[in-house]
Amino acid sequence: MSSRDEDRWTAWCTDFDEVEREVFALFHTRWMWRAITGLMNNGVPDKQHTVVQNYFVRTYVGTVCTAIRREADNDTRTSSLARCLAVLVECPHFATRARHVDAARQQRDTSGAAIRDDELSETFHPFAPGGGDHIDPEVPADALRRLTSAVAPVRKYTNKVLAHRERNGVVEELTPSWSEIDRALDEVGRITQQFFALRHPGTQLASVTPVPDLRFISMFRVPWYSEAWKPPDD
Q1: Which residues pair with 134 in a beta bridge?
Q2: String of DSSP letters for 45-107
Q3: Which pLDDT belongs to residue 52?
């Protein structure tokens, strides 16, 4: 590759690394949300006080929807999953089979994996199904269409409710369902897994949810309330 293509590839990898970090954090956030609300409800839906429940919902929805919206932002001034896909559509020639195979070979030699030299080229096949020397732009284009479709309800809600304030009567019409939020997040995760293998040749990402540290559960083993507690000052 030319030095310019090398620079583009390096810049793309830097952006995708930022995407990885946020997506891992997002899926950890969802896992924690489900774990903590499950512990607090403990099988009794009405056990959670309304004030606490509303606080958790606002915090979770605001965090997740904003992050999903950020990863779907295709503005050229941003770093996001959508932008990573768009760059591959616009400039597919810098994501080459030769570079991918060479990096996969280094990964194999470091890890000691039993992969033959003639099999290394096959690891690039999902990105160039026709056998081309660089990524087929239709592959990231398809992923970008899937992402755009899945995040549409979340994006509209975030733009018009979280980032701005629509007039009364509009908010409920825009509020996405839990299934729509999950669908958007799951699609972000699937696409991140798909292109993780492009960023890290010779590897596969089994899950975008980090292995949780369950030690935090110990805090629920004792009562939180004590007679000495006082609410914070305004």
Answers
A1: 96
A2: GGGS-HHHHHHHHHHHHHHHHHHHHHHT---TTS-SHHHHHHHHHH-GGGSBHHHHHHHHHHH
A3: 84
Q: Give the separation between CA 2 and CA 75, rounded to whole angstroms.
A: 26
Mean of per-residue pLDDT scores for the chain: 89
Tell me the pTM.
0.89
Tokens of 43: 């099988």
Q: What are the C-alpha distances in Å from 24 to residues 69, 89, 167, 192, 217?
A: 15, 24, 35, 10, 21
Nearest CA to 15 out of 102, 73, 99, 93 is that of: 73
Buried b (16+ CB within 10 A) or exposed e, 169-186: eeeeeeebeeebbebbbe
* End-to-end CA separation in angstroms for the chain: 60
Query: How far apart, in whole angstroms, are the C-alpha atoms of residue 46 and residue 68?
Result: 30
Tokens read off for 202: 């010779």
33 to 70, 142, 206: CA distances (angstroms):
20, 31, 21
